[in-house]
Amino acid sequence: MVDQVNRPNHYTADDIQVLEGLEAVRRRPGMYIGGTDIKALHHMVYEVVDNSIDEAMAGYCDRIAVTIRKDGSVTVQDWGRGIPVGKHKQTGKSALETVMTVLHAGGKFGSGAYKVSGGLHGVGVSAVNALSDWLEVEVRTDGKVHYQRYHRGVPQGDLQVIGQTANGETGTRTTFFPDTTIFEETEFRFETLEQRFREMAFLNRGLTIEFSDERTDNGARFMSFYFEGGVRSFVRYLNKNREVLHDPVYIEKEVDGNMVEAAIQYNDGYNESVFAFANTINTPDGGTHLTGLRSALTRTINDWARRQNLLKEADASFTGDDTREGLTAIVSVKLPDPQFESQTKVKLLNNEIRNQVESAVAEALMEWLEKNPRDGRKIIEKCITSSRARDAARKARDLVIRKSALESLTLPGKLADCSERDPSKCELYIVEGDSAGGSAKQGRDRRFQAILPLRGKILNVEKARLDKSLANREIQALVQALGSGIGDSTDLTNLRYHRVLVMTDADVDGSHIRTLLLTMFFRYMPTLIENGHLYIAQPPLYLVKKGKESKYAYSDAEKDGIVKELGGMQGVTVQRYKGLGEMNPDQLWETTMNPANRVLLQVTVEDAAAADKTFDMLMGNEVAPRKRFIQSHAKKVRNLDV
Fold first, then answer.
1. For residue 546, is it within any domain?
2. What confidence tier does 629 reach under pLDDT thresholds 50, 70, 90?
3. Residue 116 has pLDDT above 60, yes or no
4. pLDDT at position 607, please?
5. Which of 368, 277, 390, 250 is nearest to 324 (CA)?
6. Which residues lie below 8 Å from residue 2, measured CB to CB, with a gap of 6+?
7. Of 268-272, 480-484, 577-581, which range is least confident?
8. Per the domain annotation, does 121 fall within a domain?
9. Does one domain contain both 237 and 287?
């Protein structure tokens, strides 16, 4: 029998709530823009810019300007047709107000206004309006400038004409300030937006995107993006710091009203860098267009290799993994009616697009291989080497997994495990060296915190195949400790710790070890990052003492502030921690391991293409790009005490 104590004893029609207007968006922002974090904040900008991109794809706009204002608001302006301002027959309001305040209202539901567009749910700009503290929109059309202002989605007056346009200029200018009561953070990051706008320019040949930031003290920071080569230029950009095997293979074909565009180029590395877009929207979870590209690649390379007798009759065909090692590729499709998995558009679902992409890519790639047999042989040789290495990696991985299962009671000898058995409550600290490991083991809470000390630096996996990486003892110990496997066999249901923390010294060696670990996780365990399990611990840099008073500082600025607060350097001692081993267990617990006090940085990847390029530049084989990066950023590093 159900216990009725303290339960409501009635459920009537009065309990049914109807959320008017945009209130549903404000109550459940995650359904519309994916959350309220920094990623969702930038998604607000993307939703507005996507509308301007749709005008560009329709052929009515070749320039878009985005500006971060001094007050933190964002302005997006295009020179397209302008949102219609006439009276809407269903709502009785202006079409502009209807678009800005009514969910699922727009010109992209088969009216003929847009053949291809990214914003097909009619939710984007109205959701931005709902989640903005204020929003202003100006529309230039019919020789007039029309204006309306909103506060948290509510119009602050009717649409009004505020001026005349010059030379028949048309377009839309939207300025919004995100609602601080909704978002956890409201400061836009220039670098995050820069990467997105660069991608948009690559995917729309002939479109200029201007991006400026007025928040700097020495004038606006400005960048302009324009790429005549489209996705071919995109692939060259991603491979900029790599040794490539050939010029990009370019594919462009219209199939049944859908446009398929792709570019393929192999490099001498070991990682796959493939990115998929639908109507210029990045689909990080892939979808049918990515499946079509991969199928075409594997099938065509196998067919051509056998036709050229490079694969004998008795030889096994290459697997998809064999044909994608060292591959950099972009696939971009434009279609009138894309079906996305959700409003945040992470995956394309249209079934017909798979066969269309596969057919277009297979035909163009086979033609290219026939015309460029020397380059084709380079690709086949790489596939053969990859196949042999993958077989060795499979055996090595099976050995690691088998050892993990056999040693499940003891795990790696260096691991100091915790007593808690619920993975969601467990933490694993990865620390460098026995000294720091000793302090961490003594200072931890043994109930839920485990410690894994690493001896020396792990292998740089950016320069090694999986088989060689798995032969590294420190990587083996880490894989065994985590329990979730590595590479294609990663399974997070077996992850033994739901919070994995990298804790290294605050010096150059510590930074290098942290970078090596992050490279390993990004290349071989990306789902650990994607699911929010990876963190970087932040140990203090300084201990500032005056008499009996002690305070920790995590940066030079914080240290200077504490010294000033204590009345200057008179009687003050400042200790600079060069290593975790210099702290006694109590200090390490108090500053870095105690959940009540510690500072953690969660590792995320907002832009996979940018992250891929950065890891290759920092950890790859080419020295010159890394040298340029260090020289250009060295001036930003001050007072580095090593």
1. no
2. low
3. no
4. 56
5. 390
6. none
7. 577-581
8. yes
9. yes
Question: Which residues share a beta bridge with 259?
Answer: 254, 334
Range(s) of the domain holding residue 209: 23-225
What phi-psi label fits residue 356: left (phi over 0), alpha (psi between -120 and 50 degrees) or beta? Answer: alpha
| Measured distance CA(492)–CA(506) in Å, rounded | 30
**pTM of the entire structure?**
0.65
End position of a domain, from candidates 372, 388, 404 = 388
3-state secondary structure of 641: coil
Are both 121 and 239 inside the same structural domain? Answer: no
DSSP 593: I
User: Which H/E stretch holds residue 398?
Assistant: helix 373-406
Same domain? For 236 and 213 the reply is no
d(CA 494, CA 546): 49
30 and 175 in a single domain? The answer is yes
Task: Determine, yes or no, domain membership for 378.
Answer: yes
What gap in Å lies between CA 29 and CA 36, rounded to an integer?
7
Distance in angstroms (rounded) separating the CA atoms of residues 355 and 83: 36
Q: Which own/partner contact pairs does 366-369 have at CB distance under 8 Å and 24+ positions apart?
A: 366/300, 366/303, 366/304, 368/249, 369/300, 369/301, 369/304
Residues 159 and 96: beta-carbon distance below 8 Å: yes
> What is the identity of the amino acid at 25?
V
- Residue 561 in any domain: the answer is no
State whether 97 and 113 are in the same domain: yes
Alpha-carbon gap, residue 278 to 76, rounded angstroms: 22
Mark which of 225, 246, 279 sits at the end of a domain: 225
How many angstroms separate the CA atoms of 256 and 199, rounded? 26
Return d(Cα 531, Cα 527) in angstroms, integer: 6
The token duo for 447 is 């109930």
DSSP H/E element including 356: helix 352-371
Cβ distance 45 to 33 under 8 Å?
A: no
Question: Tokens for 521?
Answer: 């996780």
Q: What residue type is 548 in one-letter code?
A: K
Nearest to 553 by CA among 3, 447, 563: 563
Indicate if 67 and 205 belong to the same structural domain: yes
Tens digit of each residue's pLDDT (9 = 90 or more) over 45-84:
999 998 899 888 888 999 999 999 999 999 999 999 998 8
% residues pLDDT > 70 (the chain): 84
The residues annotated with a catalytic role in the active site are 432, 505, 507, 509
Residue 531: burial class (beta carbons within 10 Å; 0-12, 13-18, 19+): exposed
If pLDDT is split at 50, 70 and 90, which confidence band does 88 have?
confident
Helix (H) or strand (E) holding 631: helix 623-633
Domain count, the chain: 2
Name the more confident of 566 and 324.
324
Pair 58, 108 in one domain: yes
- Of 628, 626, 613, the closest CA to residue 240 belongs to 613
Q: How many residues does the chain have?
A: 642
In the prediction, which pLDDT does 174 show?
Answer: 96
